[in-house]
User: Fold these one by one.
Assistant:
Number 1:
Amino acid sequence: MRLVFLGTAAAEGYPAPFCTCPNCQRARELGGRNIRLRSSVLINDDLLIDFCDLVPAAAFYRVELSKVETLLITHNHADHLWAEQFFLHAHPFTRVPVPEMAVYAPRDAIERIRRLSERTPEEARYSLHPVSAGEHWTRGRYHFWAVRATHSTEEPLLYIIQDGEKKVFYSTDTGRYLPETWERIKEHTFDAVIIDETMGTIPTGPRSGHLGLDAVIEYRQLFAKEGLLRPGAHFIAHHFSHGANPSYEELVSLLGEHDIEVAYDGWRLEL
Ligand SMILES: [Zn+2]
Ligand SMILES: [Zn+2]
Ligand SMILES: [Zn+2]
């Protein structure tokens, strides 16, 4: 399985456009891995998760999405679903034939697409498939499982994905897992876990809709203790907010000693 991180920031991007806090200013000075678009990942050229900063990602990280056959939307927030941009998948904005893109999303996100996309599914060659927490389905070589996130939209989802060889857990935009979610997670073992680390040094409260460094470190230990990490598994933090996350290098030193990797934009990871 090949992963390409198209974006690794929270909703405001990093640096945030209207912000001159020390973290944003430092990111502007340092550049490189400190510059982050909104979170999204491409798997094996044909599976895309979330749908926001695709234009800058395609330009800056030299990827093309013409082979994408499946799009998973985690939840109904604009930094994960920029519903207006389905026109990109239609002529004349693509001048090559593209496969139909099956979009799996929670119902409230499907509604957002129906409301905001100027292009119909026929015009832009996509199809809409509502999914709920607890569902398992297949498409092509992939198996998918949806579990419920702890987050502020109507039905936020996290996805477990298997491509026939490897299994990953895409766990963005969630606070601490609900008991029923944790029970479902424990039915799997993973080659990679990509986990929300929005809040940085801010302690993760019981009702938070995101995780900070403290909870990510706890979960790394818990996943290992429960035997959910396969040999050589990657445990990767992403979805960084400028608010309380320091530079890339500082995150690497804070998380590296706990065997947690720090995602960055344009990272190509082979599992
Ligand atoms: Zn987000
Ligand atoms: Zn800032
Ligand atoms: Zn969100």
Number 2:
Amino acid sequence: MIKVYNTMSRSKEIFKPQKEGEVSIYCCGVTPYSAPHIGNARPFVTWDVIRRYFAKIGYKVRYIQNFTDVDDKIIKAANEQGVTWKDISEKYIGVYFKSMDALNIKHADIYPKVSETMGDIINMVQTLIDKGFAYVLENGDVFYSVEKDKSYGKLSKRELTDMMAGARVAVDERKKHPMDFALWKSAKPGEPSWDSPWGKGRPGWHIECSAMSLKYLGEKFDFHGGGSDLIFPHHENEIAQSESAIGEENSFAQYWVHNGFITKGNQKVSKSDKAMAKSSKGFFTVEDILSKYPGEVIRLLLLQTHYRNQLEFDEDRVKEAQEFYGKLAKAYWQLDDLARKTHAGEFVKDKEDKNFAVIASKACALSDLGERLLSNFYAAMSDDFNTALAITYMFEYAREISNYYSEFIDGKVDTLKIDDKVILRVQEIYLEMASIIGIFEQPVPQEKSEEPAAAPELVNALMDIILSIRQDARAAKNWATSDKIRDALKEAGIVVEDTPQGATWHRQ
Ligand SMILES: [Zn+2]
């Protein structure tokens, strides 16, 4: 059972796909007029994990994300830089992919662009006019009439009267209602425009997502997502347009999933906030951050907070995440080493050894623990995609793997053949968790080995010889030699203890 927090009902609901075994998702993409900042990246990392999770549990996932490539900000940037709107959008779509690829975000099935969906957008506007939900002004502007939609405000839980009271901007006198919004804007000099039944112009912002999601996912698709700042007016307007055009309530997205803001000093990270970009001193765009820290660390940091919660982002937190990532990476390499050694039968010794049962059961216990943690991991993911909790299970497993590995290397486990299938299962579980979180897909950093990996059986054999020589010295009451051996071993990190049964040793 998968539970999803639906912004529409403001509660967690049990997820029921529209088509058995399939999941359809539409997430609002970026307006490519500048490099994406860390706040932009959050919804895409969130949806990437959700997609991976659904795919892992057997769903066929279809994911659509748009590029708003026709927009005021793009036109403004193009005019300022003396290039075309297409130059700007293509340049920043390139930057978008570079940044998101570094965060291991899988590509969408389709990335529709406004400029390539114009026919569908125009058809949808025409349908809204035909059905009486939209009106055309003399100059060719087309507006959606919010009063015609009885359920307008249902996502943001706002009443039309409240919205009017809150409207501070000067109201366009030509509108029938102050909250009416543009579906089509007539052409202005120096701006790109397309032919339409209402003359040359370009679409308003909201209509593109209605046209694109319905085109590629059909009515009643499963998920619609984006940052929580899109709830109003963007998603509210998408619902109004789509359901009016279809002519049926609840005929658009079934689950509305919104991620919380990223903040810096408790202030929302936003592109429009130039002061913040400036005060961030080169630690604002994904590109900036990636020049200092690995993408997988940034990804992990973003997922260590539940997607609906606000996330305070600063360099100290990135450093913490890097340390955390380092521990996960360490267990990754330790498992690699264990798998290699056990598989190669490097440490084969007589199974009659009295410790065999104890040691074999330790490996089995690690594998059993993994099954339990994996089940907890999936339970966390199925409870509104709680990556924050899921990651703690992965971390717990990493710690246990490292503990086991230390015992192995310290010679407590090393001299016996461990069933390689058990270790391979441990590795499989660990990598399954990683594949959903979406890490270890780039070269995993490997710490320099803390000590030269002397073969444990060799160490054991040498220690037997050394302790036997020391025993001879003690028998001859040659205390100086006996102490010299003990002290030299201590210097080398090996502690010798004399017991009534003879001398024993262990690493410090
Ligand atoms: Zn959108």
